[in-house]
Amino acid sequence: MALSARNLLKGKVKEVTKGMVMAEVTIEVAPGVDVVSAITTSSVERLGLATGKEVEVVIKATSVMLNA
Amino acid sequence: MALSARNLLKGKVKEVTKGMVMAEVTIEVAPGVDVVSAITTSSVERLGLATGKEVEVVIKATSVMLNA
Amino acid sequence: MALSARNLLKGKVKEVTKGMVMAEVTIEVAPGVDVVSAITTSSVERLGLATGKEVEVVIKATSVMLNA
Amino acid sequence: MALSARNLLKGKVKEVTKGMVMAEVTIEVAPGVDVVSAITTSSVERLGLATGKEVEVVIKATSVMLNA
Amino acid sequence: MALSARNLLKGKVKEVTKGMVMAEVTIEVAPGVDVVSAITTSSVERLGLATGKEVEVVIKATSVMLNA
Amino acid sequence: MALSARNLLKGKVKEVTKGMVMAEVTIEVAPGVDVVSAITTSSVERLGLATGKEVEVVIKATSVMLNA
Question: What is the pTM of this model?
Answer without folding.
Answer: 0.97
